[in-house]
Amino acid sequence: MKQTITQKIIARHVGKKELRVGEFVEAKVDIALANDVTAPLAIEKFEKVGAKKVFAQNKIALVMDHFTPNKDIDAAGQVKKVREFAKKYKIKHYYEGGNCGVEHALLPELGVVRPGYIVIGADSHTCTYGALGAFSTGMGSTDLAAIFATGLVWLKVPPTILFRCNGKFSKWVTGKDLILHIIGLIGVEGANYRAMEFGGDAVGELTMADRFTVANMAIEAGGENGIFHVDKTTLAYGKNLWKKPDIYFSDPDADYERILDIDVSKIEPTVSLPHLPSNTVPVSKIKKIFIDQVVIGSCTNGRIEDLRQAASVLKNRKTNPNVRLLIMPATPKIYAAALKEGLLKIFMDANAIISPPTCGPCLGGHMGILAEGERCVATTNRNFVGRMGHPRSEVYLVSPYVAAACAIKGYIVHPEEM
Amino acid sequence: MLIKGRVHKYGNNINTDEIIPARYLNTTDPAKLARHCLEDLDKDFVKKVKKGDILVVGKNFGCGSSREHAVVSIKASGISAIIAESYARIFFRNAINTGLPVFILKNTSEIKTGDIVEIDADNGILRNKTGNKKFSIDPIPKFIEKIIDAGGLINYVRKKKVSKN
Ligand code: SF4
Questions:
Q1: Could you tell me if the CB of A299 is within 6 A of ligand 1?
Q2: CA dist A132 to A35, A102, A227, A399, B42, Å?
Q3: Angle A8-A13-A19 (CA atoms, 0-180°, nearest 5)?
Q4: What is the pLDDT of residues B7-43, one digit of tens each?
Q5: Is residue B161 over pLDDT 90?
Q6: Window A:359-418, CB contacts with B under 8 Å
Q7: What is the pLDDT of residue A229?
Q8: d(Cα B108, Cα B84) in Å, to the nearest integer?
Q9: What is the pTM of this model?
Q10: Strands (DSSP E) found in B32-162
Q11: Which of A26, A53, A142, B37 lies at a CB distance of 3.0 to 4.6 Å from B97, suitable for a disulfide?
Q12: Are B25 and A37 contacting, i.e. CB atoms less than 8 angstroms apart?
């Protein structure tokens, strides 16, 4: 039977050579992840299972990134609960405070998640790690509790949609524009219960940062996972992080449910209008939409490459007086690199606010909440009703280039017009 | 399983931010979460909902984040079952895992707010008592039935091999 990379990784984790699409299996998990929002609920459920210990102390990652630095007493209580659990069960990968960043930027950077792994996270953007050639997907807290106890997860082997990307990317077009374009094409339910595999020559041109961005937003099309093959870019990324990765390839004539050809040279800088990520239009088609805030960061676009793109536009320019520009380096390492490269100076000279690594406003948690009627341009991944604050506020999703240009002009604009 | 109740009807692509906004996720307390159920979609929902009511929606219900708080909030608000044209994958798992009955009806357009419906899960039938109509609902896969029969994933796991010593 011809298999996709997704089928092969799952098969390996159930001790089989191959699996049929639609089969229910119980697979071994390599890394189980939860955060300060989902871990407390997972811990409560875990306690109900009655297990005396966790399945593996070094295979659970707990990242306190959503409401941290703790925004209020309840949030602080949640983190305390997780901290105590981590101590009691001797969890190796517990991150809080100065070693903590946004989970999906942090765990790859530390080498905790790797090619060929099965990673299950109580966070929907766990699909990010597919960029490394892992099977990685989000679930709920009860699933996590069950994994904490047994190390196993139930899965229904998903069918795969192949996105065959060819052509050359135009200037200003990034991984973010590619994935927004794809979500616009297939819709928010277009890949529900399905694996999204990204292939073709153009994919080889993408940096790791861009691949993380693309895989990150697979869930915005309903995808179970988004996945890339390991290539020289992946291996270069992992050089100092891991040895001998477990690498899988889709068979050339694997049984894809659907193949979509994407000519990336036709893609322009793209924006998702409120209130669904699939409401995409080229930035060039937009009339002046005035804005109040710009957020550059998150697990989607808070990596050093993203900050470099933003800085290239913001250099020697000022944020529009009507706009608050928030820059959120996603991890301490990225923060330090931005400092060293002089990017933070560029941002401060542009009157930006630099936030500590946190999810913060991305989910409307804290540190940059919108009032009624306010509009925000963000490099994040969701523009649902109320996502960043008031139910009648608006979020527009874009790349770091576009976000930076909007911060300067005060309205949605193509970076070419700078 | 026979579930009967009064309908609250909403549309497509209702996401978890609308079901329970992130600003309330600093707790896991079901009662607190229930107070804000569906707040950003319909701020009066919590005033209207009564114990045993049934939520009927369109496509892709529960898309967005993985927050199980969404299921907790709906359950604690009094809703006894959901009928949707389709569910986002994670929400569907969360509902199964925590024992909130969820059903798939290909087309929910003939059910309105205020209707009284009866779900006959064993026979895969939905009756709209108000309009006196009968619909067939999708059968539940065998594997998932095992989890439901055990009373949710935690009980299912408890019965299986758990690292005890
Ligand atoms: S940055 Fe936003 S999308 Fe990413 S994990 Fe945090 S809240 Fe979720």
A1: yes
A2: 21, 17, 8, 21, 40
A3: 45
A4: 999 999 999 999 999 999 999 999 999 999 999 999 9
A5: no
A6: 363-365, 369, 382, 384-387, 391
A7: 98
A8: 7
A9: 0.95
A10: 54-56, 81-84, 102-104, 116-120, 125-128, 133-136
A11: A142
A12: yes
Give yes or no for B59 touching A (CB within 8 A).
yes
**Is there an atom of ligand 1 within 6 Å of A281 CB?**
no
Token couple for B110: 């003939």
B162 pLDDT higher than 70: no
- The alpha-carbon gap from A398 to the nearest alpha carbon of chain B, in Å, equals 18
Amino acid making up residue A417: E
Distance in angstroms (rounded) separating the CA atoms of residues A124 and A104: 10
pLDDT of residue B142: 84
Phi, psi of A194 (to 5 degrees): -125, 155
A347-382: b or e for each residue (b if 16 or more CB lie within 10 Å)? beebbbbbbbbbbbbbbbbbbbbbeeebbbbbbbbb
Chain A touched by B163 (CB under 8 Å): yes
- Non-local (6+) Cβ contacts of A406 within 8 A are A291, A294, A323, A377, A398, A412, A413
- Please tell me which of the candidates A48, A51, A192 has its beta carbon nearest to residue B60: A192
Between positions 25 and 44 of A, the ones with CB within 8 A of B are 37-38, 40-41, 44
Average pLDDT, chain A: 97
B128 touching chain A per CB within 8 A: no
The per-residue pLDDT for range A52-100, each reduced to its tens digit, is: 999 999 999 999 999 999 999 999 999 999 999 999 999 999 999 999 9
Ligand 1 near A296 CB (within 6 A): no
Residue of B nearest to A193 (CA): B89
DSSP B11: -
Binding site membership of A123 for ligand 1 (Cβ less than 6 Å): yes
Q: Is the pLDDT of residue B160 over 80?
A: no
How many angstroms separate the alpha carbon of residue A293 from the centre of ligand 1?
A: 18
Cα distance between residue B77 and residue B30, in whole Å? 9
Nearest to A26 by CA among A149, A193, A191: A149
